[in-house]
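User: Here's a chain of 98 residues. Predict its fold as tokens.
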Amino acid sequence: MSKKDVLIYAAREQTEHKLAENIPDHHDYAFWTVSGTPRQTGPGATVLFTDGDRVHARGEVRECVDGELRFEPLERCDQELPAEPVTRGFKYVDPSES
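Assistant: Prediction complete.
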């Protein structure tokens, strides 16, 4: 089974401190708190953050551990939604082309 990308509903303000430009030099990843351990995604997949209208930030998944989805510091973007977002938690989506 191929790894799925992850779409997370979050306001821009909730992700601002996870952007590469705002991550302190001594940190090499950011994370999002989740329930359990994400099973359908993994290293190399993409985590996408949306405000419900557009994807506003993205990063590469580094690892999944109990209670955390860890990813590279985020980069800003402005992309169409790959799927209708959920308003709580996250949603697995087919891997993005870009």
